[in-house]
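## retry 2 of 3
previous attempt timed out at serialization; input unchanged, resubmitting
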Amino acid sequence: MIVISLDGFPAYALADPYLPVPNLRQLISRGSMARRMITVNPTVTWPNHTSMITGVKPARHSVIYNGMFLRDGEHGAGKVEPWRGKSEMVTAPTVYDLAYQAGLTTAQMDWVAVYRAQTITWSAPEVLDVNGKVEQEMIAAGLISRDDVEHFREKNITFRDEIWTQAAIHILLKHHPNLMLFHLLNTDSVHHTYGPKSLASASALALADARVGELVRAVESAGMSNRTTFLIVSDHGFKVFSHLIHPEVLLHGDAQVMPEGGTALIYLKGSKSAGQIRAKLEDVEGIDRILAPQDFAAFGYPDPTKNHQMADLVIAAKDGYSFAAGDQGEVVTPVGPTHPGAHGYLNTDPEMNAIFIAAGAGIRPHVVLDEIRNLDVAPTIAKLLGLEMKNIEGKPLVAILQ
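## retry succeeded, writing output
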């Protein structure tokens, strides 16, 4: 089982018949797909990747940032810390935990919320380590230099995607893991900088498709095609925006704002109540709605009385707007002549929908589902591996299974 996540690949992009992604289209032609996969809130990378391998929303798995939000006391300032152990960060069982406990082998390349995960057999992490087992094997095989590993974080994202791809192929051919989780990042980086629906976007998506093709051909060359299943997914879609909203300019230290693109989480710090903070924000240009704790469950957010990471309020942006940090200058500013992209908007926005493709062993050909949830990915992986995930919100996609 190989799960490939193409970060920030919108469902609407795959629907474009002129997007040059021949490898994805070939997998679709012999497998199954969903026209759109509904994401979870917040529609950012780590929460959605975690939902895809736990089958539950962030209210249960606790990942609401690209890392773990650490607060200095109940009303103190906080920061997002990515390098926290998986056992501390993820509060729900994962499908790779289940697979490992069943005696299967697991692997990950640049997956998220997996730091120090004890149930990953082979790993090529987001930041390579010269002391890592896979990294040492790749250095010995001449696939990467020791200097490139030592300075991996400094390299551009296109190069890092290439190395993660080579690591995935190396692990597939040498170790034959039963479950591999593989994540590419260049698509997300390009969409943030140049915007979706741009020439740069099409080029980045085409390059991601080429990486998928490399893995497919590696499986074919190893004679493993008849027993390998591919799932191609993404974590969220993307929107173009023209204006940035800086809520902290209005709040003057009474609250900490944690922007996540199309939404922002607000934590009370000073003497102002949530009602007073809300009153300051209600008429701000570009703010579409303000969610209070009584609204959180409906959107899949944790209960702040039970999860210390969760905010006191969530604000959501209108089309064309995105939230940003900063407490100086104007509240709303234009972004200039460029058309950058953002995600993080409420998952009811169709532009946040993600892709889902399945092909290979155990997959029915020529099945097209209209809509699925990314919560359904984990139980589908489990069923294909002969396992069962219990007490989750997702369901196996039996319509695509042989």
